Amino acid sequence: MNITHGLVFEHAAPSAVTIGNFDGLHLGHQALLARLRSTAASRSLRTTVLTFEPHPREFFTPEQAPTRLTSLREKCELLGEMGIDHLHVLHFDATLAAMSADAFVEGVLVDGLQARHVLIGDDFRYGTRRAGDLAHLQAAGERLGFDATQMETVLHGVQRASSTAVRAALAAGDMAGARDLLGRWYGISGRVIHGAKRGRTIGFPTANVEIRHNRPPCTGVFAVRVHGIGDQPLHGVANLGRKPTVETDAPLTLETHIFDWQGDLYNAQLRVDLLHRIRDECKFESLEALKQQIVDDCATARRFHAEKGAD
């Protein structure tokens, strides 16, 4: 997949374009991308996804912005796996926020990305004061030589497949429910970085996966599956949180203890799937009490892997 950035457009080609934040790339997004690929194939166009970094709500109201389901890197990886040809990332700043709907269509979609077909979700708006909608896009297309369509809401059962619904499931500890909406287990990808190395002193060495966004949709202790070590995923237990027993005001970390495995993982790129929420993160009175709880957590995680596992 080709990845480009900014308001300078290079290597553009006639494209079927879709636009959005695509946080989580859930079943609704996947249905939209499948339609985009089908249209592009029938018209010999390139598939292009246009997304924004940061999320516009992080720019306008950072304190009220939703938690992120995927970092930009994870989004890039998933879109590549889904067969998208081209990802263009626009930095969302004051300049972009002030761009009119007409200027966005003409400068970005037509002149920049060479859009011949544009597909949007049913809740997408663009331009200053969110003035652009499907009707505006279709009218612009008649003048500028592209057509535009809208994807209706995708339902999973009776529930709308949305990033909001995924966040709600994760916040409630319903990891299987989030999986059903995502079409895969929720996971966090990142580079293994050096930590305080306390885990090894109490018999539970951990791989500390770097968190690139500081507000995940869930915290706690989880049974996990780890990808990136050998050909098959490995089982383990992980703490996603701030380690209140050993630190005050600590940064968010994902500390993963991988069962029955030893080795050096520093700088390795791992993906940790959160399969089952075992408990809340909490502060213990002593390291000994924490160690006993970790023993119990490992036993709970091993039972989950043995009895239910991950599909």
Task: Give an account of the 3D structure.
By secondary structure, the protein is of the alpha/beta class. The chain has two domains: 2-159, 3-Layer(aba) Sandwich (Rossmann fold); 186-307, Riboflavin kinase-like (Elongation Factor Tu (Ef-tu), domain 3), CATH 2.40.30.30. Helices cover 32% and strands 26% of the residues. The protein is built from ten helices and 14 strands. The chain has helices at 27-42, 56-60, 72-81, 94-97, 101-110, 134-144, 163-171, 175-182, 198-201, 287-307, and strands at 2-5, 15-19, 46-53, 86-91, 115-121, 147-151, 155-156, 159-160, 187-193, 207-209, 220-227, 234-241, 253-258, 269-279. α7 packs antiparallel against α8 (175-182). The model has no long low-confidence stretch (mean pLDDT 91).
In short:
This protein has 311 residues and is α/β, with parallel strands linked by helices. The chain folds into two domains: 2-159, HUPs (Rossmann fold, 3-Layer(aba) Sandwich); 186-307, Elongation Factor Tu (Ef-tu), domain 3 (Beta Barrel), CATH 2.40.30. The protein is built from ten helices and 14 strands.
